[in-house]
Amino acid sequence: MKPHYLTPLFSPRNVAVIGASDTPGSVGQAVFANLLAGNFQGKLYPVNLNHRIVGGIAATPSVRLIEGPIDLAVVTTALRGLPAIVKDCGKKGVKAILLAKDFSDSEDVERAAMDEARSLARHYGIRILGPNVLGLMRPVAGFNASNYNSRVKAGNLALVSQSSALCTAMLDWADSKGIGFSSVVSVGEALDVEFGEILDYLIADNFTQGILLHVHHVHDSRRFMSALRAAARTKPVVVVKSGRYEDDVIGVTHSSNLVESGDVFDAALSRAGVLRVATIAQLFTAAKVLAANYRVTGKRLAIVTNGIGPGVLAADSAYMYGVELAKLSAASLDLLNESLPRNWSGSNPVDIIGDASPVRFRTAVKVCLDDPNVDGVLVIFTPQAGTDHLTTAQLMVGLQRESNKPLFLSWLGDAKVSESRELFSKSKCAHFRAPEFAIEVFRNLASYHQNQQLLLQTPGPLEGERLVPDVLSARAVIAAAQAEGRSILSERESKAVLAAFNIPVNPTRLAASEDEAVRYAAEIGYPVVLKIDSPDIIYKSDVGGVELNISNEATLRDAYRGIIGRTLQARPEAKIVGISVQPMRKRRFARELMVGVTHDASFGPVITFGAGGIAVEVMQDRALSLPPVNHYLVERMIDKTRIGKILGPFKNMPGIDIEALKNIVLHVSELVCELPEVREMDINPLMADESGVVALDARIIVQPQPQGKPYGHMAIMPYPVHIVHCAMLKDGTTVMIRPVRPEDAQMQQEFVRNLSEESRYNRYMSSIKQLSQSMLVRFTQLDYDREMALAMVRQTDDGEEQLAVARYITDPDNESCEFALEVADSWQGKGIGVTLMQALFDAAREQGLKTMVGEVLAGNKGMLKLMARLGFVVTTHPEDRALTIVTKDLQGEAAVKSLQ
């Protein structure tokens, strides 16, 4: 893969500092001095209109007068002159600009200059970092283009912050703890370069082993989420968010009123497999622990102590942090009973009595580590008569080396146990001055594990679903409402949209008169429900617009008149379309639920689930997730709610049909994926019991959406169902071409195993027999926004058989991609390569990619012949004559096709 396009920014060889100065206190002086003092190995060029020499180096009045190429220009002058600077840099061939200068958003002149500069930068292909930034540091390379005047150690953590002030505080805190950095990036206003692009660079940076982010807001959520998910697959990522209570979720439905932007951000980070923390201290502590490869697989903690008081306080902290105290197995309890004094606590926390010897500590801790019900152990040592803190510490260090479960050590006291703490630090053991800090870190590790599990979820099409949604019908309902200038669909229209996506609804008939309502009720059968139908009234019960359990005609006529009267009194300006008549659903064991959709300014549609009914906002019982979701993600949502605890059988109530409920949420996910016009939605109440689930009421808010890439309204690209299609091979075999899904892992493995040695070598350039587990995950769990794998399969009596697979991975510039193609040996020569590659071309064009590139062994004559037939340009690899480079212009061919 070619060098990342941000390499001139992060690893420049020649740097010009525009505004470099000798004036004390100026930004130009601070930045240039730091570059000179940082042992930067490249060339530095000061640019100053008024001085011929700066810092002992000859200066030029313009970057265009510098002899030789310039990779990076650091701008420290007033932003009002930025357009002229960008134009000079463009003509010089500069590829990156760092704006190490404050920006005043209130000044129209600066805003206009910024907009003009951004336009010029795009014209010249220049990338801009900033403004309002502290600067950029690469301590591992001795590169410090910042105005920070304190020491920054080299290390393996990358720090990316949106706030210069917070960034300096983080650096000061890290220096006091001896923490070093591979990169420090202050994003600032993010005029051009954003988080997603910086993350893409850090993913491939060998100096970076962990990434720390401070985020205030996100501009491009799709790029941010894709990059974050890619980073989290290979490196631990820890995020601290500012502005949690700045609510970007604004709407009219219950679903919107129940959600804060901070909740949505939490859900997004969880899906990305990263860890969110609340403070700077937690940020660095979590990063250090994760970078040291401490991992847990659950949240069950065992506490071993020689003091019951500290043990109980630690248990209280565990409860407060949501950490589960492990229930020791019967076998573990038997071993402890045999080994410990009779008066030990008998349960978790495991109090082994104040005079515990080092061996007694080791025995108790070893039993807990070996217990399958335990995910981690906290050891609390209190110095008492007869105890030996250092020998105990040495035994704990040895135990940690033996176990793959994390051991958290808290030696209470100060001077008496200082030698033990030094030992823990040298041995790189997780040790804490107070047990509650250890429990907090364990909680974060458990959350990180759960989020990593969420990262692995790549929802495919609805499993086993025979009914295809009627998307055209749903869009027709929405289009009709929008044609009338309405954004709020009536209950009937909302239910029609739900029904089109196979969501069971309570049928609704609209009555324009009292007599019509009587006729419909007779057809439906009593008892019935009457509801006001008005485009101006969202919540009918607020105006007395609902009457339940109407059992005869006389009662219905009274109810009809009563609803009309109360509605006109409460909302005299409201337009009344009529009264809807619905069957009254009486279910003895039913639970009232709510499934909704809201819209976040950064992350787009969000699915909510929780308790339903008229008191939904008071109950505040809800969980949320970014779509698309699958069964695992839906189960997680349900488990997070209080109402989820009573969906199973309890007392005299049978459990609800939980699979039917899950399917409802899955269909809602499908709905928001396919209908970008849906801005908000409430299904409330959603009635669920042992017989099934039905939507009794619904409301949908819609909004026109501009044309763009498929699923452009979503932060996470869903499974691209629209790409799936059938084709016929030369021999008449019917095949299906579809994007690869996670459940294809076994099929993919069998495909590789059955390839000949020659085919495997041609594809992987090695003699592998099968894919490793990490490669299998990488090839089947896709981020469809930045990569695509198309499998050609045929149906057999034993299920699907994979005949071939073609894939591409997008380069960080989002303009080009690298591809690979594999065809089963027994299916070669049947036109598969051409058919599959044409489908891959179409998928790449849809994503806006311009160029497709691949590496082919020079001896692979069959593949090279196919490449030539497909219009690839074949050239010799510049560094390896055994390889050839094949390149195809995707956009040029698309333009030709459009003219034909």
Write structural notes for this entry.
- This protein has 900 residues and is an alpha/beta fold.
- It has 29 helices and 39 strands.
- It has an eight-stranded mixed β-sheet with strand order 32-33-34-35-36-37-39-38, sandwiched between helices. A seven-stranded mixed β-sheet has the order 9-8-11-10-12-13-14, with helices on both faces. Strands 21, 26, 27, 28, 29, 30 and 31 form a seven-stranded antiparallel β-sheet that branches.
- A hairpin with a 5-residue loop joins strand 35 and strand 36 (816-823).
- The chain is globular.
- The model is unreliable at 895-900 (pLDDT under 50).
- It comes from Vogesella fluminis.
Report on the biggest sheet: 8 strands, mixed
- The gyration radius over C-alpha positions equals 32 Å
Q: Which oligomerization state do the chains in this entry correspond to?
A: single chain
Query: How many extended strands?
Result: 39
Described by the principal axes of the CA atoms, the overall outline is: globular
User: Low-confidence spans: pLDDT under 50, at least 5 residues?
Assistant: 895-900
Distance between the termini: 34 Å
The secondary structure category is: alpha/beta
Overall pLDDT confidence: 88
User: What is the number of helices?
Assistant: 29
Binned strand content = 15-25%
Query: What strand line-up does the widest sheet have?
Result: 32-33-34-35-36-37-39-38
**Helical residue percent band:** 25-40%
Keywords: ATP-binding, Ligase, Nucleotide-binding
Protein name: GCN5 family N-acetyltransferase
Organism: Vogesella fluminis
Domain N-acetyltransferase: 735-891
